[in-house]
Amino acid sequence: MEFNECLRYLIDCEEIKIKDLAPKLLLAPSTLGNYVQGTREPDYDTLRRIADYFGVSIDYLLGHKTPAEDDERQLLARYRSFTPSQKRLLLDQAELITRYKVKAND
Question: Closest Cα partner for 43 from 9, 5, 3?
Fold first, then answer.
């Protein structure tokens, strides 16, 4: 996946508009729009801000990803869409899985 396609995908997953995201990344909406359209590419500092915002690696943004990173991104995107009570339930389940894993390895 090319950078612009990856960026579009992340924006769609977050369900955020370019005009709302651009200021959070210290960009003009037109600049971010150009990145999404593939007519411009960001500099290193901008790549870093985009990666930090979406919780992904720069490698992921540039199309180099492992299946585990993709799974993590999907989990994070879903987690962000949950209500506070759903988030708490998910964290409780993760704690139970961790405890079971530790006991199963003993």
Answer: 3
Task: Select from 68, 80, 70, 87 the least CA-distant residue to 9.
Answer: 70
pTM of the model: 0.64
Encode pLDDT of 56-71 as tens digits: 889 889 988 666 667 8
- 77: Cβ contacts below 8 Å, ≥ 6 apart: 13, 14
Q: What residues contact 73, with CB distance under 8 A and at least 6 apart? A: 10, 13, 54, 55, 56, 60
93, 85 Cβ separation under 8 angstroms: no
- If you write DSSP's letter for every residue of 27-77 in order, what string do you get? --HHHHHHHHHTS----HHHHHHHHHHHT--HHHHTT---HHHHHHHHHHH
pLDDT tens track for 82-96: 899 999 999 999 999
State how far the Cα of 99 lies from the Cα of 68, in Å rounded to an integer.
Answer: 21
